[in-house]
Predict the structure.
Amino acid sequence: MIKAALVQFEPQTLQPAHNFERIAQFIEAEGEAADLILFPELVNTGYVEPVALGGPITVDVPDYGQALWQACAELDGQELQHMVELAAKHRVHLVLGLGLRDPLLRGVMRNTSVLIAPTGLVGYYTKVHQWHNEKLYFTPGDRIDTWQGPGCKLGMQICYDSRFPELTRIMALQGADIITNIWAGSGIDGAAVADEQLFVHRAYTRAMENGVFFLSCNRVGVQADRRFLGRSCAVAPSGRVIGALEHDREDVLRVDLDLDEIAAYRSFTGIWTDRNPALYARYLSPSRLPD
């Protein structure tokens, strides 16, 4: 049994010192009971501005792009080293959505999901599918991997990635038991939420298609004219909703993940034995012409 805690967190824009201090507080509070703790997308920097197409830059800085780079973390920096120390102290795995400076290319930034184990930094995933204005600042990833988690194989995604079923399928084919998707999903501040179950729908679909646990951790708070929607959730391989927060306030969703449910669902449904990859490949080939 894996005990996971999804921290529905409100970062402050371009305030990494403040954000890492509060991240540490949540780890201290949850670490003794949890095996895995998740934090949302860009939890150290806040989301990019403009938050939405055509929106304003509301941060009062001379050069927002450079300010964002300054706010990003470094893989070998003190901020991540502190996270490693906390993971070791509490014997817990951490999934952190971080803006990272590229370790080789000065001024290049990555929107990443970082996995830290009690033994140290395991690896990081760079967001492949970038939403709207993220493309102005971040260089996309070009790798899909899975990593060793707390008694499981773990795949990491970020926000918009969930709309691309190939990503989850590839991670499942690599042996992933749990997929973590960290968000900065928002809507217009003051407007009604169009779909209260949006994050559950997406997690449910990806979980059932592959027979994996899908953990969806979204941020909260207001930035510019956008309100981040929260509503973090966790879904079992069968599509059963294990837990969900039905609001957009800071909170922690705590769930238990029984890995035996993966084999039970996959062996019952036949979603792996009934696949026909050779047939699909004929239609997915870019050289295939319409009949």
